[in-house]
Amino acid sequence: LWSVMLWHASQHLILGCGFQAFWTIENPQLLLLYQTFIWLPNQAHNGYIDLINEIGIVGLILFILMIVKNIVRSFRYQILTPWLWFLILPLISNVTESNFFRVGPVTPTFIILSYLVLEKSLNNFRKEVL
């Protein structure tokens, strides 16, 4: 499945096919995929392949920059709260399941909450310094 999905992603590598556009039943490419995979997958079972397929290399680079920026900022200002794990663990689980930008999984909420906690902690840090 991963190799087929990478081939589909290579057809629109730069910008992707659009958010949630590939896994809709109206997509003829998905119907061809279902002829090969009779168990009717609804994701690539690798979130990073799904990200490349849907938002392209440009979107994936922006997503990675956002994650790296948050991790670097938390280590730079020594804000190593348990919420940092709510950012790191979904990144690990996204290798085997497509968790980001999906309806249902709670991991996008974890990423948003970890980002908000980091921003709140940075604001508190700035107030203490000033």
Number of beta-strand segments: 0
Measured between the Cα atoms of the first and last residue, the distance is: 54 Å
**Rounded mean pLDDT score:** 86
User: What is the rounded Rg?
Assistant: 18 Å
Total of DSSP H or I helical runs spanning 4+ residues: 5
What does this structure look like?
The chain has 130 residues and is mainly α. The chain has helices spanning 2-10, 28-36, 47-76, 85-93, 107-129. Helix 1 packs across helix 3 (47-76). It is elongated, with a radius of gyration of 18 Å. The termini are far apart.
Summary?
The chain is mainly α and 130 residues long. The chain contains five helices and no strands.
How is the topology of this model organized?
Blueprint: H1 2-10, H2 28-36, H3 47-76, H4 85-93, H5 107-129
Keywords:
single chain; 130 residues; mainly alpha; 5 helices; 62% helix; elongated
